[in-house]
Design a protein that fits this description.
The complex is a heterodimer.
Chain A lengths: L9 H26 L1 H6 L8 H24 L6 H18 L2 H7 L3
Chain B lengths: L1 E3 H34 L4 H36 L14 H6 L5 H14 L2 H16 L7 H31 L7 E3 L5
Antiparallel strand pairs in B: 1-2
The chains are: A mainly alpha, B mainly alpha.
Chain lengths: 110, 188
């Protein structure tokens, strides 16, 4: 049986890191919409759903743009997955923390 | 036996998409781990590749259907503003919960957490499906990538459990009801 050609890890790393970036962006947009009335107004792109519509749409855009940019840069490269994982999971943890209402309130001194 | 239109859509969101997605999680962990463990040369990995790809793509689609139906169909019903003069809040779940300090927490913690945390799941599962399709059995050669994929899958499970759990409780204390009634079974 022939050994398959080992694929570069760049495309996978781009997907993992961009998912982390999207998660972090979701947390930051959620906090910003909760803390600042001006941001809340900007993110009100579909009033029946309130600022949630803008928070999630903006986070998805950040995630997809990051994915496209990183995919192009790393398409034929091998990158340090240990470092990518560290950053991706740190951003994921940040996103999870910032969307937890008691932590969000703590940051705003509520 | 009747059900209101909004009840039906809420059931579809929670039980049709969300619960089905939750049930598929253990399978996803198994699929990723088994494929990576079998290695690129395994005939089992090659034969099962198409089915495993379909499985993970279906999970990602279910995750998107769950959050999109929640945010753009059910959430507007949940947070509808109470018209002036209305005192019966049963048709306005958010206002109903906030009307009492005994139930306000279900909105302030439950819904406010649920409405955001649920969105980690489709992002994570789309990434997981993509990486699996791209690398498949080669995940055996990229252990750190496999670990990241499993880690994101576990976080997606947690996020779905939080969103689904609070969704069930919220619907118990302040159900989303209304719209025309649909007759499921008529007893003569």
């Amino acid at each position: 049986m022939s050994n398959p050609i080992r694929l570069h890890n760049g495309p996978g790393a781009a997907a993992i890191l961009s998912a982390g970036i999207g998660a972090g962006a979701l947390g930051l947009f959620a906090l910003a919409a909760d803390a600042f009335a001006a941001v809340r107004r900007v993110l009100l792109i579909w009033p029946p759903s309130g600022p949630l519509s803008g928070v999630t749409t903006a986070a998805i855009l950040v995630w997809l743009v990051a994915w496209v940019v990183l995919s192009r840069r790393w398409a034929t490269r091998d990158v340090s997955l240990a470092r990518v994982n560290l950053v991706a999971f740190a951003l994921l943890a940040l996103g999870l923390l910032l969307t937890f209402p008691p932590f969000m309130d703590l940051l705003q001194g509520k | 036996m009747e059900i209101s239109f909004r009840d039906l859509i809420t059931v579809l969101h929670g039980m049709g998409f969300g619960a089905l997605f939750m049930l598929a999680f253990s399978g996803a962990i198994g699929v990723i781990y088994a494929t990576a463990a079998a290695g690129a040369d395994s005939p089992i990995a090659r034969q099962s590749k198409t089915m495993f790809r379909f499985y993970l793509i279906s999970m990602a689609l279910l995750a998107w259907l769950t959050v999109l139906s929640g945010a753009y169909i059910i959430y507007p019903w949940y947070r509808a503003a109470v018209p002036p003069g209305v005192t019966d809040l049963s048709g306005y779940p958010r206002a109903l919960l906030l009307s009492s300090p005994r139930t306000a927490g279900w909105h302030e913690l439950g819904m406010e957490w649920k409405e955001h945390i649920a969105w980690f799941t489709p992002i994570a599962m789309t990434m997981v499906a993509y990486v699996f399709i791209k690398y498949g059995p080669q995940l055996a050669l990229h252990r750190q990538m496999r670990n990241a994929v499993l880690g994101f899958t576990a976080v997606a499970f947690f996020a779905t459990a939080v969103a689904g759990g609070f969704g069930a409780f919220l619907n118990k204390y302040a159900p989303v009801r209304g719209g025309h009634d649909i007759v499921l079974f008529r007893q003569d």
